[in-house]
Amino acid sequence: MIRRLLVPALMALAACSTAVQAATYELFRDPNCGCCEKWAEHVQDEHEVEIPEVTTQDMAQVKTANGVPQDLWSCHTMIVDGYVIEGHVPAADIARLLAERPEGVAGLAVAGMPLGSPGMEAGNRKQAYQVIAFGEKGRSVFASYPGA
User: Fold this and answer.
1) pTM of the model
2) Which residues contact 65 (CB under 8 A, 6 or more apart)?
3) Helix, strand, coil shares, percent, the chain, to 5
4) Minimal CA–CA distance to 46: which of 72, 77, 13?
């Protein structure tokens, strides 16, 4: 029984790993934002990839051009294989997005800068937050993280 469950789980993990490592990444960030660099390190470490950065003072233009709903804006925007990743989205959720490629989803967002999210670590302090999938089919909760 365990073997029947373990083999598909390992195959799914391998597929996720391949998808995230084969993806193209480009991070847009304000040159004065330090949490963006910490978040990028989180994604690079988890996905074992290099992430090219584009610094710009006009992040509003980047977000608008990539269709990020204004109420979901955060401090940085990344394009991963055509998907928009807005804010402090955990690397595991990006991997899941790339593996599942849900229809009608243009990207994922964590609005604002919640404490405890990747890049916003603050000791034991954690705010609850959600990762929101957005796109032509509207919005849905992709993942939820509890506060502490």
Assistant:
1) 0.85
2) none
3) 35, 25, 35
4) 13
